[in-house]
Design a protein that fits this description.
323 residues; alpha+beta; Deoxyribonuclease I, Chain A; seven-stranded mixed β-sheet; six-stranded mixed β-sheet; 31% strand; globular
């Protein structure tokens, strides 16, 4: 039974260089002094640090599919892909440039030897609010050589900036958006379609944006029996173990999550999530030496730490496929 190794990582502010010609004047003004001192040397160092972790995933083979967020453009994605050349994989880029006010996007790197994406089968689902925001990015992957459909939806929901409660409505809208498009996918592809939603949700599995609006359940049986577009949130064991993908004020937060559809639970489409395979990937070199195992940040510009990585840990999951 072949396996698919899936990973997601918020790579924290993977911006192009300070005065990049690939950045619009509007975005350059919006970022202001945020990128002061963000040189090519610093970008190269950050990419090398990220690549050193990605290369260790999947037992050193690297992921088959990697979702990322907080990347500015296809150029930096391409350089990250090139930094993974030692893996010998045919990584390809799926990315849609969005109108986020900080210019950071959701994207995927996928192995062209494992998947193909047909023309017209990537979709940006925009989350509407008063200010420019990120999208939910959907890619319809076809497995090679079996041509099974795996729908992956990358998420980076609005942050808690300004206060958790004050910003909660924005994440509720993102949750509604995810549930709506999950329902549309089921209507087009069938109720047993394999859907995996992954990302930095900026809320935890027990928050209403996920439980009430995105229809993400804790119990697998509820998802199996539901006639509505329910998803199983695979991160509840992580919460129970007091693990965090992100740490804030000495609290472990499981903000980065995998949600899977009924089809990925039952295995009806020939793909089945191995629900006990979820890992928060805390490689020793990423972990700070403090009282809490928070990740070592790379930062940016004049405050960059060249020995850092990101303020989030990667997460990983295995999906089995029938022979």
């Amino acid at each position: 039974m072949p396996a698919h190794h899936i990973a997601f990582w918020n790579v924290e502010n993977l911006f192009d260089v300070e005065d990049s010609p690939r950045r619009t004047d509007k975005l350059q003004r919006a970022l202001g002094s945020e990128l002061a001192g963000w040189t090519q040397a610093q970008l190269d160092a950050k990419l090398a640090q990220l690549a050193s972790i990605i290369q260790q995933l999947n037992g050193g083979a690297g992921p088959d599919l990697l979702g990322v967020c907080e990347v500015e453009n296809a150029h930096v994605l391409g350089v990250l892909r090139d930094a993974l050349a030692l893996l010998g994989r045919d990584y390809r880029i799926a990315h849609a440039d969005t109108s986020d006010q900080r210019g950071i996007d959701v994207a995927f790197l996928y192995d062209g030897a494992r998947y193909t994406i047909r023309d017209g089968e990537t979709f940006s689902h925009f989350v509407m609010r008063r200010t420019a925001t990120r999208d939910l990015f959907q890619v319809n992957l076809r497995t090679i050589p079996t041509d099974r459909l795996l729908v992956a939806i990358g998420n980076h929901w609005p942050s808690r900036r300004g206060g958790e409660l004050e910003s909660a409505a924005y994440r509720a809208i993102a949750g509604e958006t995810l549930a709506y498009f999950h329902e549309r996918i089921r209507a087009i592809q069938g109720k047993d379609v394999a859907v995996i939603a992954m990302g930095d949700f900026n809320d935890e599995p027990f928050d209403r944006s996920l439980t009430h609006y995105a229809l993400a359940e804790r119990q697998a049986q509820k998802v199996r029996n539901a006639q509505t577009p329910r998803l199983l949130n695979l991160m509840w064991p992580v919460v129970g173990a007091a693990l965090g993908t992100h740490y804030f004020d000495n609290h472990a937060n499981a903000l980065d999550q995998f949600l899977v559809s009924k089809g990925l639970l039952t295995g009806a489409p020939g793909l089945k999530a191995r629900v006990d395979s979820v890992r928060v990937e805390q490689f020793p070199e990423m972990v700070s030496g403090g009282d809490y195992p928070d990740p070592i940040r790379f930062g940016r510009g004049r405050n960059a730490n060249l020995a850092g990585f990101s303020d989030h840990y990667p997460i990983s999951l295995v999906i089995d496929e029938d022979d």
